[in-house]
């Protein structure tokens, strides 16, 4: 499942006793057994299949990428139809799996809070998943020909968005720099020095020096494959 880029982390917060937590009502809580109550559920999901970012294309310049028509009609940095289909399946899965247990049978604004990063592709992913997760019940149906209702989400400002810690959390960035120059890390990376050399030879205009650079290269190869550009033969194992 090399190309599976959706992942889900489901964390159930259980609290002892039957009293609701301060600031919550007892209504959405679900009795798990006699003396434990489900107070909160958190679900994290990544965006679906996408086209490449300009940053990635700039980092690894190559002739094939210059033809912008291959990104039509999505544009760059965008969710593809496959990505939408995957997000929709995730919404359907969650609805079937948790209908009437963790999830109420209908969208209730006091029960559900939705947050996404301020990227078109993540917002489109969440909108598509929500279309499957919260199909309108008869009371919510507003257009007889459309099995969809609007469900809102929040997008925090860049500097307040904890999902983007790897760009804006200064402490994380400092610690990461420290790890990169630590003897332990350098020892672990030694076996790959030949690989970096080889990759730099294949992408002469790039400068691949860290495992993170290789991660970005892998992202780019996958994103290009999403728009029909097969990986170069030397990359296939
Ligand atoms: C979820 O539960 C509601 C109420 O019991 C039911 O009407 C609906 O068909 C269920 N939806 C799914 C997808 O199972
Ligand atoms: C490549 O990147 C490294 C680490 O960021 C930097 O020290 C080096 O100067 C760069 N080399 C070139 C040719 O850009």
UniProtKB/TrEMBL annotation:
Transmembrane stretches, start-end: none
Residue ranges the record marks as coiled coil: none
Keyword annotations from UniProtKB, A to Z: Disulfide bond, Glycoprotein, Hydrolase, Signal
EC number(s) stated in the UniProt entry for this protein: 3.1.3.2
Signal peptide as annotated in the record: 1-17
InterPro entries cross-referenced by the UniProt entry: His_Pase_clade-2, His_PPase_superfam, Histidine_acid_phosphatase
Domain of life, source organism: Eukaryota
Gene Ontology MF terms in the entry: acid phosphatase activity
Family: Belongs to the histidine acid phosphatase family.
Cross-referenced PANTHER family: ACID PHOSPHATASE-RELATED, PROSTATIC ACID PHOSPHATASE
Protein name: acid phosphatase
Organism: Leptidea sinapis
């Amino acid at each position: 499942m090399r190309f599976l880029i959706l992942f889900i982390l489901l964390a159930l917060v259980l609290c002892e006793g039957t009293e609701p937590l301060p600031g919550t009502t007892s209504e959405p809580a679900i009795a798990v057994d006699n003396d434990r109550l489900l107070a909160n559920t958190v679900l994290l999901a990544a965006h679906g299949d996408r086209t490449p970012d300009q940053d990635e294309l700039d980092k690894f310049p190559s002739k094939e990428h210059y033809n912008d028509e291959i990104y039509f009609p999505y544009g760059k940095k965008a969710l593809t139809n496959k990505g939408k289909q995957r997000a929709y399946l995730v919404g359907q899965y969650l609805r079937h799996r948790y209908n009437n247990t963790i999830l109420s049978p209908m969208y209730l604004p006091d029960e559900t809070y939705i947050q996404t990063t301020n990227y078109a592709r993540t917002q489109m992913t969440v909108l598509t998943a929500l279309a499957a997760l919260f199909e309108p019940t008869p009371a919510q149906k507003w257009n007889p020909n459309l099995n969809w209702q609007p469900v809102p989400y929040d997008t925090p400002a860049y500097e307040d968005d904890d999902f983007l810690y790897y760009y804006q959390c200064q402490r994380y960035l400092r610690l990461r720099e420290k790890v990169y120059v630590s003897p332990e890390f350098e020892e672990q990376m030694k076996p790959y020095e030949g690989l970096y050399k080889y990759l730099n030879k294949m992408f002469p205009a790039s400068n691949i020096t860290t495992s993170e650079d290789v991660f970005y290269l892998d992202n780019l190869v996958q994103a290009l494959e999403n728009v029909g550009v097969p990986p170069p033969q030397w990359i296939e194992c």
